[in-house]
Amino acid sequence: MSSLYLFRHGQAGRRDHYDTLSDLGRTQARLLGRHLAETDVSFAALFTGGLQRQRETAAHLREEHPALPAPTIDSQWSEFDLDAVYREIAPRLAAADREFAAGYEKLMLEASDAASAVHRRWTATDIAVVRAWIAGTFETHTESWAEFKRRVRGALQTLESFGPGEAVAVSTSATPIGIWMGLAMNLADREIMRTAGALYNSSITSFRLRDGELSLFSFNGIPHLKDPGLRSFR
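^ thats the sequence. predicted structure below, dont judge the formating
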């Protein structure tokens, strides 16, 4: 393989039903598929993580670009389970930190309103929970940050089976893309998460693989989202 294209899924649902695409997310995915159909890139394979929003994105890509190969589900590309991380860590952070507890209570109240803007942005509470998970502040039963990184990086073994000159596409999520950015650029964990946080929904990030070396070729491209109203981060 010489080219790897990672597509972030389209905008997902609200916090209480995140693993699906919103109406905007479906539009973003279709526009990405239309853009791919207009390029001269021929893909040897299309992989998708096992989550619904990732698989829906791949399906919409193929609606607009039927020449794409049928998607192969590979759970190594799935996002980490933020709900599980929250369930295990947020109550313990709240017990240890009054300021976090107040922010967490406010977040839960705002999230009960389906029209709240909190469904479309990261909050200080979200950041605190994820940072505690990455740091291993609390022992958890869910997948650890270290296990998650190993899982995502493990996809390299599958990709190495493709021949020189072949291009592979993957429908995945923000943090797996950030982890591959970390592989290519030797980023620390904090920078990996900052990179993931900068990704637009349905964006294109591409790499080149030569003699076992992974190099970044393009980052966070959205040529298919010409209208600013179509651009979103969450």
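The radius of gyration is 18 Å.
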